[in-house]
Structures are given as C-alpha cells and as structure tokens.
Amino acid sequence: MVDEVFLEVILLSLVELIFVYFVSSLAGTQIRKLTIQNKHDEKLVGIFHDTGSKELVIICHGFKSSKDRIPMVNLATSFDNEGISAFRFDFSGNGESEGVFQYGNYYREADDLHCVVQHFHGKGRLVIALIGHSKGGNAVLLYASRHRDVHNVVNIAGRFNLQRGMEGRLGKDFLQKMEQQGFIDVKNRRGRIDYRVTKDDLMDRLTTNMHAACHSIHESCRVLTVHGSKDEMVTVEDAMQFANCISNHKLHITEGADHEYTLHQDELISIVLDFVRGVTEDKPEFLSSGKEANKIHSRF
C-alpha cells in the first residue's frame, strides 16, 4: 500500500513537471540543464529558467532533497512567468550533483551557493534574490552573513536552533550511540541504510551558530522569513527567533501551512513574489528595518 501511494505521488509530480515545462515553453522561457563547478571540483547540476532577463533569482532545496521537488519547481516557474530568470540547483551530494551526502555541511552548502552566484555574476547576470527552503533557508542566511553581493534573501521554514530536531532522524539516544559507535546509520522505511552520520557531521551541525550568523547579516540585506503555523518539523518559534536577530527582517506566518507548504503552494508563491517584486519596483514599504512591526499573519 505504501509503495502504491509513493508511486502515485511520483507520477503526479512528473505530470506537474511536464506541465511546467510546457507552460514555460509557451512563455518563451528557455529551460536547460546547467553545470557549475564548486571549489572542491565537484559539478553542481541545476536547471536554468532563462527568460532573457538580466535579473536572476537562485532557489535552494532543503535537507536530502533536490532541485526537482515541487516547491522549487513552482517557485522557479512563478518567476519565469514574471519575466525573471531563475536557477534551481542541487547542493553537492544531493540530486544529480557530484559529491558525497553529508548530514551537517551547512557552511559548505553556503560555499556551493557562492560558486553559483559568482558564476552568474561572471556571465553578466544580476542575482537579485536568494531563496531557500528548510535547510536551504539556512544556506541563504549563512551566505548573507558572509557576503554582501546579494541584498535580498528569502528563508522558507529554516531552522534557527540547530540543536533541536535531531531525534526524529537519529533517535532519542543518538548521543549515546554516537559515543559508542562513532557513527549512526540512518535507515529508510524499508530498513535499508540511507546515510551515515559521523561525529564530524554531528559537530558540524552543533557548532553552526545561526544566532551569530544572523547578527552578522548587514542591515542593507532585506530578509523575508516565511513559516507555516502547522509546521511540525521546524517549529514556528524558530521563525520568531530569526525575526529577533536580523535587523532588516520581515516575517510572514502562514496559518495552517505545514513544512512543505503542501496545501499552500499558491500562497507561498504570492508571498515570495511580492517580496522580490519590491526589488524591481522599489517599493519603500519593503525597505523597513523594523522587527516585530514587520510580522504578517496570513488571511487564509
């Protein structure tokens, strides 16, 4: 039964992807696969939605995910419908990209993103926004804490406190197991080993300080955090903490939305598009640097 449900989800996803490519082709967007080298000489594979615009947004996936997940595809398509080019890619060790998957890897993914940004800047494109979902939200924020060449960042359901949320994947006694074995093998639903977490991987996560990173984001960088009120993977409290740490921040809490925005894709797209439109339309209301006053609750 589980396999049948899984196959049905995959088939529906494929149908939606085919529809996306068809609609984009009608709009005149060129969609092509693009490979970019990271600083470890690994090939990062992405899909470039090229509308011909100089402006470009880059979209980053979450933990053990890929560029082809529906939220990333829908966001990219929404931008090409607006005439803005978009690039969605796989971090190293994920999807089609080269490299070995690692559990932590937070700053390394930010480095991957830096290589992608540099590639497009070298091609004469202007990266106007970085958009990340879940762990991808952490990547775009860490990027902004280190670099000042992109001034608009969207964090969708990122995790602020990285010391939380590990028991769900590693088990309640993961610290004891790690001390005894030196690693933890995480299995999938079929009982097969999905990936291995080493002590170094665990320490990478535990020593990644989002609080310090967020305080390092320059006030000239506009940050939007979007989070669902029904997110059971990353609590909405994390979104509040981002709002308290980032100087130029806007917070949108979507009532009823889960971590993947499963039933709220249209609203997610609308929120993100409105924020990025503020870049090209120069709307002064988007430039506010307030914290609590910028919190928005969904009407839906």
Automatic annotation (TrEMBL):
Coiled coil: none annotated. It comes from Lithospermum erythrorhizon. Keywords: Membrane, Transmembrane, Transmembrane helix. Gene3D superfamilies: alpha/beta hydrolase (3.40.50.1820). The chain crosses the membrane at residues 6-29. It holds the Pfam family Hydrolase_4. Residues 54-180 form the Serine aminopeptidase S33 domain. This is Serine aminopeptidase S33 domain-containing protein.
